Amino acid sequence: MSDQTDAQLARSVALAAAEVLRDLCVAGACPDTELGDRGDKDANALILRLLHAARPDDYVLSEEAADDGLRCAARRVWVVDPLDGTREFRERREDWAVHIGLAIDGVPVTGAVALPAAHRVFATDDAPPAFAPAPQRPRMVVSRSRAHPIVLAVAEAIGAELVPMGSAGAKAMAVVQGDAEIYLHAGGQYEWDNCAPVAVALAAGLFASRIDGSALVYNCRDPLLPDLLICRREYAEQVLAAVAAATHLLP
């Protein structure tokens, strides 16, 4: 078993996967038509190997691996997305990520999010950021192609500026690093899409919840976790109120 802390382990695994993925993006390293599948496969294999070696008694829930139902009875479960934003990765953009999260008793306590193309990694053992004063008009990161109607309605209600972006990890880290104030998502995600980003956001002092204000719970039998709010704490009440006023737009 590794003598690293959980946060150190999450960071080191995220960095190792980031390096593998960056190497695949080098011209000629992998045919463009195979890039997404190869990235998912290679990063997943490395992450599983490193986590099992360092924490052999823990379970892992990965987007790219068969789900072992025994994890549901476990206290410690690593929730990982080896390549969040496969489309952006294939397009060789910067807004894709690696997510390494750890849920203990369903709570996202530890995690790391790497943005490999930007050579950045954010982890729960980072020093909390010092945020600039909140702008008069908040910036809200949204999907590049399919922002949910409720997200658009909330943005209009609070006067937010929309910032289109790729992966969930990239969006969440935009709030962590002060490039946006709000990340609101509705319409479908899974635990691996947001466990690590939520852990990092909470450690940074941000607010995170479901869009009805309830807690985000992980290691559920069904890993579907369809909605999410990460934001500066001073915006949480306003955003949740705007969501409540727009619930008629939910399915």
TrEMBL record:
**In its keyword annotation, does this UniProt entry include Lyase?**
no
User: Coiled coil: which residue ranges?
Assistant: none
Example GO biological process? 3'-phosphoadenosine 5'-phosphosulfate metabolic process
* Keywords, sorted A to Z: Magnesium, Metal-binding
Entries under Pfam families matching the protein: Inositol_P
Catalysed reaction, written as an equation: adenosine 3',5'-bisphosphate + H2O = AMP + phosphate
Which cofactor names does the annotation list? Mg(2+)
Q: Fetch the SUPFAM superfamilies from UniProt.
A: Carbohydrate phosphatase
Q: Which InterPro entries match?
A: CysQ/Inositol_MonoPase, Inositol_monoP_metal-BS, Inositol_monophosphatase-like
Its recorded name reads 3'(2'),5-bisphosphonucleoside 3'(2')-phosphohydrolase
Source species, please? Sphingomonas glacialis
- Provide the organism lineage as a comma list: Bacteria, Pseudomonadati, Pseudomonadota, Alphaproteobacteria, Sphingomonadales
